Amino acid sequence: MTADSSPPKHIEVIIQEITLDQAEQIEPLWQKLNTLHHRNSVYFKDHFNNFTFPERLQQLNTRDHIAIFVASAGSKHVGYCLCSIFGDIGEIDSIYIDELQRKSGLGRQLVEKALQWFKINGLKQLTVSIAHGNEGVVPFYENFGFKPRYLVMTADLEK
Fold it and tell me: What is the DSSP code (8-state) at residue 11?
């Protein structure tokens, strides 16, 4: 096993909640997600190329409540789910599972933690936004009752 590879799947994975002040713990995983979005993006490679974790944290500071669930195997973080509440709407803002941990049920466990958190906070409506080019995750979210509602398109007026 190389220094940056994930631990074997037989190591117990523990999920815990951390605060926004501890969010730097998920930055390496968030960077991998951002790289994945950059690679899959058809139209917005510049956005993902230039988007930074501090900018993401600044965006999250506008939310009413934040929860970050981190999955760890031994001393290594192997996944996270970041969710927020703005008004009466909950959002799964981002989720990432280390490549060697995918298909292990870890993503499901993290989303279930998020759904519990939303229920405890009395929410009835949830959203998740999927980056164009990453539509392969749609069936995953449909398993939790999410359904497509809008297709949002953007234009850059500076061009």
Answer: S
